[in-house]
Specification:
The complex is a heterodimer of chains A (476) and B (143).
Chain A lengths: L3 E6 L8 E7 L5 E8 L5 H4 L8 H5 L7 H16 L5 H33 L10 H7 L1 H22 L8 E2 L2 E2 L8 H5 L2 H21 L13 E6 L11 E5 L5 E6 L4 H4 E6 L2 E8 L9 E2 L2 H7 L6 H14 L11 H20 L19 E8 L2 E9 L5 E7 L1 H4 L1 H15 L7 H12 L18 E5 L5 E6 L1
Parallel strand pairs in A: 6-11
Antiparallel strand pairs in A: 1-2, 1-15, 2-3, 4-5, 6-7, 7-8, 9-10, 12-13, 13-14, 15-16
Chain B lengths: L3 E6 L9 H12 L4 E5 L6 H6 L3 E8 L6 E4 L14 H12 L5 E8 L11 H4 L2 H12 L3
Parallel strand pairs in B: 1-2, 1-3, 3-5
Antiparallel strand pairs in B: 4-5
Helix pairs in contact in B: 1-5
The chains are: A alpha+beta (476), B alpha/beta (143).
């Protein structure tokens, strides 16, 4: 056998489009594997020349899954440029919609995209390994997942008047106050949402037992973890300071002002992917690999300030044992469900907070600073927007550091680990391909695209030799 | 709550792709007794909403429709296998998860003649908006 390359394209049930190539040597051993992102958007460039006030509406269209995170982060960058103090009511309403975004996105990731693999099995018919297959397998579980996502969307719609691409948050605050008539309606969802989160956690713990042979291979390596934490070390999602933890659980940098992110993180590029490769500058590229998102957030925080989620966090941390941090990427799913529970508890608390009913929701000002950085925790990890404007508020430079990109090095490492574990170069089964794809899905990558494939499993696999001659071509 | 729901599907920033939304918005004005929902695409979450209505009319743009195309909808069986959830797929989910489907369900499709960037419909497709409302009228005015 000559050296060859196996290609999985497109990678399915992720947000956006990508492909995986696996290079195999003449002995059939995996030499390397890469996760390629083959779509190009160019938002940073074409936003130049636009007015700063337009950025919420523009950047929320980066993605149909997490538009709210871009909206909030954009508004925070705008707050910095206006140099205003955002009214407390607006701050709390922004928190509320950020939590709603976590709920709807995390529910989509777990119930719609990932749980079909776990509940139906790696080798199940690809055409059934989706939300519809889940309905056929366990109607009540599927129904709960769909409704949990709907709860998050409902909050976003109540606050922002639409479920996606709402322009509701603006520099200085939000456009409209909260309608008090909606409070009881939203509170009515809480018991069911909590129950669903608990049911999902119970189901996942059974999945952990069922898949204990596979889990150790799912992106199980040490890396840095990065995210925002509150002043007291609590899990944070809207504000706070950056904390960096190593794979042994040591905090190596803490209380970093997010506006100084560029001092700590660089962005490398490779000619085989449009997705950048952020890294921790002090360690260099690629040694400065780090992970963001649920796994990082639940790892780095000292505690979670809601009781049910905090109880789960303690169980989660027990998985780390002497390692100090949970390094296995499969536990992104566990952390994601803990965050759903946290978000539901927190939404309940915010809805019962009289401050959210205030009507002073926007501070107005002109351009007071030439540069503004906004940061918040999007479902997939820390999101940064940096804008530079002229005195009229016209954007001269835009830098967006997206959560998925920050996991890029780790996603590549995960694909390589899984390929090395499962592929011997002579047989490529459906179950093996799906395990490799599922490794990517742990990170729930959002490739800035609201049109994506789910369940179609339109895999295209190619094996080529050293001269790139096609040896094997399989489509499904 | 109304007994009839009109769902407009599409992207109003891409020319004729927004035709379904334009029709649904106009239906909300012309027929005040109907509920109107405008969405970018059909998602599983809609199944619960749809299950609550006696009549549902989905209005969408289509690349394959030569003119106005009207189809009676039934729950798809077996379940659809693609992420591109069809109206029949939504009904299938309604039936399976909520044990109820609307007694009448209709899909009205308008042809896409131009899907470039822009918020206006092509003259040909715009000219069919009122015809869509005429198709709907007997359904939405029935008690």
């Amino acid at each position: 056998m000559s050296a060859s390359t196996i290609t999985i394209s497109p990678v399915t049930r992720i947000e956006g489009h990508a492909k995986i190539t696996i290079q195999v040597d003449a002995k059939g051993l995996v030499k390397d594997a890469r996760f390629h992102v083959n779509e190009f958007r160019g938002f940073e460039k074409f936003c130049e020349g636009r007015l700063m006030w337009e950025m919420g509406g523009i950047t929320s269209r980066i993605c149909g899954i997490c538009p709210t995170s871009h909206l909030i982060t954009s508004a925070k960058a705008g707050d910095a440029i206006l140099a205003v103090a955002v009214p407390q009511t607006a701050q709390k309403l922004r928190r509320l919609i950020t939590l709603a975004q976590w709920i709807q996105s995390h529910a989509l990731s777990f119930f719609h995209l990932s749980s079909p693999d776990f509940l139906l099995g790696w080798d199940a018919d690809p055409a059934t390994r989706n939300i519809f297959g889940l309905v056929a397998h366990d109607k009540e579980f599927a129904r709960r997942g769909i409704r949990l996502r709907k709860f998050g969307q409902e909050i976003i719609e109540v606050l922002g008047s639409r479920r996606i691409h709402t322009p509701w948050a603006v520099a200085g605050g939000v456009r409209e106050p909260f309608d008090p008539a909606q409070k009881q309606h939203l509170l009515g969802w809480i018991p069911e949402a909590k129950e669903t989160a608990v049911i999902a956690l119970d189901a996942l713990k059974k999945i952990h037992l069922k898949l204990q042979g596979d889990i150790p291979n799912f992106g199980n390596f040490r890396s840095l973890f990065v995210g925002l934490v509150a002043d007291d070390g609590a899990l944070e999602y809207y504000d706070g300071a950056l904390r960096i933890m190593d794979g042994a659980g040591n905090i190596i940098a803490d209380k970093i002002d997010p506006t100084r992110y560029h001092e700590y993180f660089g962005e490398a590029t490779e000619d085989w992917s449009y997705l950048k490769f952020p890294y921790y500058r002090p360690f260099g590229y690629p040694k400065g690999m780090y992970r963001v998102g649920p796994l990082a957030r639940v790892n780095i925080c000292d505690y979670i300030d809601t009781p049910m989620a905090e109880a789960e966090r303690k169980l989660f941390k027990a998985i780390a044992g002497d390692a100090g941090a949970v390094n296995n990427s499969f536990y992104f799913h566990y952390a994601r469900l803990i965050e759903i529970l946290f978000a539901v508890e927190k939404v309940e608390a915010l809805l019962n907070d009289p401050d959210i009913l205030g009507t002073n929701v926007r501070a107005k000002a002109s351009i007071n600073q030439p540069r503004g950085v906004g940061a918040c925790e999007a479902p997939r990890g820390t999101l940064f927007h940096e804008y530079e404007v002229n005195s009229d508020g016209i954007l001269e430079k835009v830098n967006l550091v997206i959560a998925t990109a920050q996991n890029n090095l780790a996603m590549n490492r995960t694909v390589r680990q899984l390929a090395m574990q499962y592929l011997d170069g002579t047989k490529v089964t459906e179950g093996i391909l799906n395990r490799i794809e599922a490794g990517i899905r742990c990170f729930d990558p959002c490739l800035s695209c609201s049109t994506h494939a789910i369940g179609a499993m339109a895999l295209h696999l190619q094996v080529v030799d050293e001269e790139h001659r096609l040896l094997w071509d399989v489509r499904r | 709550m109304s007994t009839t729901l009109v769902i407009g599907v599409g992207n109003t920033l891409r020319g004729d792709d927004g035709a379904g939304i334009r029709v649904a918005e106009k239906a909300g004005v012309e027929f005040p007794d109907v509920d109107v929902l405008c969405v970018h695409g059909l998602t599983p979450e809609l199944a619960e909403t749809v299950a609550r209505y006696d009549r549902v009319i989905v209005v969408d743009a289509s690349l394959t429709a030569g003119g106005l195309r009207v189809t009676t909808l039934n729950p798809e069986s077996p379940f659809p296998r693609s992420h591109t959830l069809s109206p029949g797929g939504v009904l299938a989910l309604s039936s399976s998860l909520y044990h109820r489907v609307p007694a009448e369900a209709l899909l009205i499709e308008l042809p896409v003649r131009s899907a470039g960037f822009g918020e206006s419909l092509s003259p040909g497709t715009a000219g069919l908006v009122d015809a869509c409302l005429e198709v709907m009228k007997p359904y939405v005015t029935r008690p």
